[in-house]
Amino acid sequence: MSTAAKTPQPELTKHQALVLQALAREANPASAYALLDQLRDEGLRAPQQVYRALDKLIEYGLVHRVESLNSFVVCAHTHAEGHDHGLVVFAICDTCGQVDEFLEPAVERRLKTWSKANGFRPSSTHVEMHGICSRCAAAPAA
Amino acid sequence: MSTAAKTPQPELTKHQALVLQALAREANPASAYALLDQLRDEGLRAPQQVYRALDKLIEYGLVHRVESLNSFVVCAHTHAEGHDHGLVVFAICDTCGQVDEFLEPAVERRLKTWSKANGFRPSSTHVEMHGICSRCAAAPAA
DNA sequence: TGTGATATGTTATAACATAACAAATTGAAG
DNA sequence: CTTCAATTTGTTATGTTATAACATATCACA
């Protein structure tokens, strides 16, 4: 189990590469429509084009969807082709929007145990914490 | 940390009670608009009325939002006023839509540990597994 | 009883996502 | 090669989820 089962990754299409680059330029998660706006000059015109590219990038494990924000981030764990890392956790700062991505094998094991015991066959798991990051907590009430 | 910090719970307003009842009637998570449709006869007319009621019900810990479905469920852990249960996990069947809700103190502890170590102050955490429930896994490819 | 604060009703619109179909591309069979 | 079915890509249209903004009503209390 991971954030999503991963598919072996062929060459990226032009749109997929553009969307991945655009997402990589963003410090924080971006919505499909924000990406579309970034990429109009590059020839993308419709939401479908972005969503289709994102679907593939997620399938290849290069991008994560942040469910609670309806938006997307590049996977922080750059990986050799075919390398499937484990369950990913997001810590999302509600003040500055920054997202920390980290791995939690212990959490993954625990959820796997429950699944086995209950006959549930998990395909993907999302763990998202909201709160205040250390920088914002320290900030002078700006 | 819990699915959300809980607020002491006053009397429910009429709309809040109606939304809670409607949600309780549903076997599976329901969207705000589905609830609105259920409640037109009861006098609800606009999405805001439903969303406002849901916001309060969530604040009181009576309802959970399922982020990955953009929908809502009544909390399975009926609780005495003010009782805050721990972190909640959802196991969502992508075949039949059924959702299992359970508690995972071990997962909660693990995430708390990370948060402490990283100066993150969590306010709410969502854990959602997608997959196939035991009944659907057993089903004759219906 | 006036008045400020809070809650509710309502309209309008924003933001996110996918259905449906047309056009182009690709690649295997003849 | 060339044809044609399968897949991918482009595009329009529409569906779904969520909130802004403002009007109206209700309530607590001076």
TrEMBL record, chains A, B:
Q: Name one Pfam family in it.
A: FUR
Q: Which domain of life is it from?
A: Bacteria
Family, per the entry? Belongs to the Fur family.
Q: What is this protein called?
A: Transcriptional repressor
| Cited SUPFAM superfamilies | Winged helix' DNA-binding domain (SSF46785)
Alphabetized InterPro entries for the sequence: FUR, Fur_C, WH-like_DNA-bd_sf, WH_DNA-bd_sf
Q: Which UniProt keywords apply?
A: DNA-binding, Repressor, Transcription, Transcription regulation, Zinc
